[in-house]
Amino acid sequence: MDQAVKDAAKNQPDLPSDPELLSLHKEFIVKAEKLAGEYERKKQYDKAREVFEAMARLVPKYPEADAGVKRMLQMQSMKDRKVIKVEATGGWQDSGAQLIKGMPVHVEVKGTWRVVLETGPEGIEIPEKMRPRDSRIKLGTLIGVIASSPSELETAKPFVVKHGGDFVADASGRLFLRMFDVDPSDNQGEMLVLIQSTFGN
Length: 201
Hints:
By secondary structure, this protein is of the alpha+beta class. The protein has two domains: 2-76, no CATH class; 80-197, Galactose-binding lectin (Jelly Rolls, Sandwich), CATH 2.60.120.430. The chain has helices at 2-10, 19-41, 45-58, 63-78; strands spanning 80-87, 93-99, 104-114, 142-147, 159-160, 165-168, 173-179, 188-197. Strands 1-8-3-6 form a four-stranded antiparallel sheet. Helix 2 packs antiparallel against helix 3 and helix 3 packs antiparallel against helix 4 (63-78).
């Protein structure tokens, strides 16, 4: 029982002891909750999220603020959607999804493909510029990059795209997808990828 009381105390918001400052905190929270609710009703989820985040910064561990941020992230990740077919034989393929920096992205993937490698006894060396910096990327992995121009495809750091994956876009730009392989031209199969987020223009 004592531990339950301690845990409950830990989860209480840290509020100031000064009565005047406490009054200002309460006034801000009341007005902020009202403003966030108005933005949410208007489906302006980015603005509502910003208000909830401001509340959470002022009063850490405030349950309504934390729940609001979580709810807005979910709404933002479901606002727009695109489905793209990613061919195993292709290089970087434009998903048509214009991601916005800071927006949550949800991805669903279905399908299978086959990596075909034909070689002699010497094997195939992966060119230096194609060697992944991320150890989770293997031959045949579905990978993505966010790029604002074709020239960025060569320099952008690819990331693993997995079924049921969620991430926050670290840059604004188009999402490009492909199979990781030295030479994709002899591969077989395809993946259907559903991308959900709040897209830009």
